[in-house]
Every structure is written in structure tokens, then in C-alpha cells.
């Protein structure tokens, strides 16, 4: 990166930080506050909606970079139009909660728009062979983007987690692109915007991200991953590895809750990271542990998958298998009532 690149990233970070400060004042003045309840992972009333600063700082930086260096048309417009739609929807939902079916309908709309702008997803590189899957690939692309919007929202439940994950995935993703001969700067700008917000969201958080920020980040990271995949710059597997902590925890939690007959749209605090934060008695140890796992385990795995495409799928599956074991250990998706019952039974046996 040149001095110009560093300056652009630094200004993006600064804009996001100042915007987050302004949004915190706005949220306090309008009483847009997350008040702790039985399904919360926090204990102190905290203003929310600060993720809008990430969106505004990043989209402004993206427009600047488009004018300066140029971006692939599909990538630029899918981030600007689809990302803007997701952010507006989330901002609305932060102020006046919308029905789940309405939110999901707009998520699908943004996902369809992105897949169309990116030219679809006609083939999947499996390492040993390339699968030409036609319309099925387009459908999988839509579902992947819609799920990314939602799982990122689900994982925004403790201080610093969603923002630090965005800094990691966007920063590492920029490295993947640079090593593949592409432009990593659009992703590094996203990392910088996320870092500006993280300065005020690090535990103990002074402001929460809100749906506008979490939905946008999930969408933006997935769009970058899909663009890198469909353009042939990388395969999908390194990106899945970088996002593996969020994908595994959110997916396993959803499946186990569904298996218990619980409505999947019902609010809860039974993700593995939420159980882990309650065991630790604080958010910071869990956020730090996930960040260390990302840097020391998943980043080397993603770089290996990039360097040896033939091994990419086995490396990805191994990474997911390990994380499934960790999430299972931390009771991802186990209802609180069942945990309480098991704890009470254990005490009775011990006595």
C-alpha cells in the first residue's frame, strides 16, 4: 500500500469515528436506546444505530475509489444500490421494528439485484472439478447473500464482535485480492470504516451497531466474496473460511432451535458466543478469543486455500468441522430452559 492508500483508509476511519460520535449524540437525544431485557447479552442501557456511520463512510470512500481507480461495474453498483437498500431498511427497523417477513423480502430483493449485477454465478470451482450449475448457481448466490445479511445480524449480540469481525474479514479479504492480482483497496476501506466504529463499540461499548450496520456488513462482505468468486480471482472457499465463525455459530444455532420446535424468528440469546460470554462473565474475553482464532487459525487456513486451490475444499470443511465442535461445546442453540433444567439436575445429583 502506498501513502495515498494509507491516507484514504485513514480518512475513511476518521469519518466513520466522527460519524459514530454524532450518531451517539443523535440516539441519546432521540432516546434510541437498547434497554437490557431477559433476552439481552448486555446489562447497561446503550444507544444504538451507530453502524450507519460505517455505511456512510464506506459508500463515500467507495465512490471516491471508483472515481480514482475504477471498480468493476457490477461490484460498485451492487454495493451502492443493494447496500444502500439494506442500510435504509435497517435504519427504519432500528426506529420502528418491521415484521420479519417484510425484512426478509427486502433482503431477497437486494440479493437478487446483486446477483444480476454481478452476472450470476454460472460455475463453482470444487478443486478437482468445476461444476457448471446454471440457474441453480444464481439461486444459491441469492440465498448466500440473504443468509449473510441475517447471520451477521444474529451475531451482533456482544460488544465489539460484529465490528472486529468486519475489520478482520475485510482486511484479510483485501489481502486475498491483492495476492490474486486484484484490487484489495475496496475491502481495506470497508475495514477502515468498521474500525472507526469499533473504537466506540469495543467492550464496554458506548454505542451499538444496529440493524443498519450489521445487515450492511453481512451483505457487503458477501458481495465482495461472490464477486471475487464469479470473476475468477479466487474460489469461494477462502471467503467461507474467513467468515466461518459467524456462519457456523449462526447456522448451528438456527438448526438446533428449529429441532427443538422453536420459532426461528423469536429473539433469543443462545448462540455459542452468547453462552460463552455468560460463562466468562464479560464480553471482552469472547470477542478477543474469536479475534485470536481468526488471526491464528482461520487466516492461515484461508491463505492455504488460496495458495493450493486443489486443497481448498478439504481445508474449508476441516475448518468448519472444528468450529462446529467448538460451537456444540458451548451449547449453540440449546434453549435456556433446557440449560437451567440440566444445571438444576446436576446440583440435585451432586447433593
Automatic annotation (TrEMBL):
InterPro entries: Glycosyl_transferase_4 (IPR000715). The keyword Transmembrane helix applies. CDD domains: GT_WbpL_WbcO_like (cd06854). Keywords: Cell membrane, Membrane, Transferase, Transmembrane, Transmembrane helix. It is a multi-pass membrane protein. The chain crosses the membrane at residues 6-28, 49-68, 74-92, 104-124, 130-149, 161-179, 185-202, 214-230, 236-255, 286-305, 311-330. It is found in: Cell membrane. The keyword Transmembrane helix applies. This is Glycosyltransferase family 4 protein.
